[in-house]
Prior knowledge:
By secondary structure, the protein is mostly beta strands. It has one helix and 19 strands. The chain is rod-shaped and about 140 Å long. About 2% of the residues have low confidence.
Amino acid sequence: AYLWGGKFTIVHIPVKDTYNLTDVNGNQVANPVTIQGQVGDGYNALSVVPTTIKDTDGKVQYVLDPSSLVTDQTFKATPQTLDGTEKVAEGQTYTVKYKHVIDTAIAANQVQVQNQAQTWNNSKPDAYTVSVPAGYAVPETWTKNTDGTYTITTASRDIDSTAVGTAVGQYSVTLSKQGIAKLAMLNPDYLFDNKIANAGTLTISPLNIPVNVEDSAGNQLAPLQNVQLGEAKIESSFNVADDGLPTDQFCFLNTSPNTT
């Protein structure tokens, strides 16, 4: 039998943990980051990964989703087969997710309440139309239209129409705080502020009533006149007098409201 004599040298080399930075769909949003240490040593992962990722202009594009990260970590033995020449061994690889920050200053990212118009009828609209960027989830109570827009009823309280009156004029209409909160709840992978909602304008136009002054034979006795209803003012009266005819012979007034 032969006996072999010799010695072994145990060398401790650091291991390197790698963190891949992705969005919620697994797409890379920045280059991976790494940290080195000895097996058994602990570290705080928050000191390794960035909490925000900015674009070239310095604007925050992504924010760390802390639920995707184990904060207290320990360097573990490498799964790599070593040949003795390595200076650093590969450790564990982790994936950290980031939520996309919506730039609400860009119109294409906003939920837009569309402009709306109606002729005065002493009432307010009971629904409004909004356009929603692709990819956003919306409440089930928002009815999708054939053109891709959505109809939101005022009864849902997702629309803020508190400034809307019934008189002729222009009124601002936007999503309510409740409507924005619903959007945030249904889109947890996105972060946005109240500017996500862009207001639209409701325009109420006067109701035009043309007045014809005719005799019983249908002959026009005075030029066509118009009365407008809906404004918060006293409307001027119209003239039914005719030269040569006493006003006490006036029998009746026939008006035809124009609702267009």
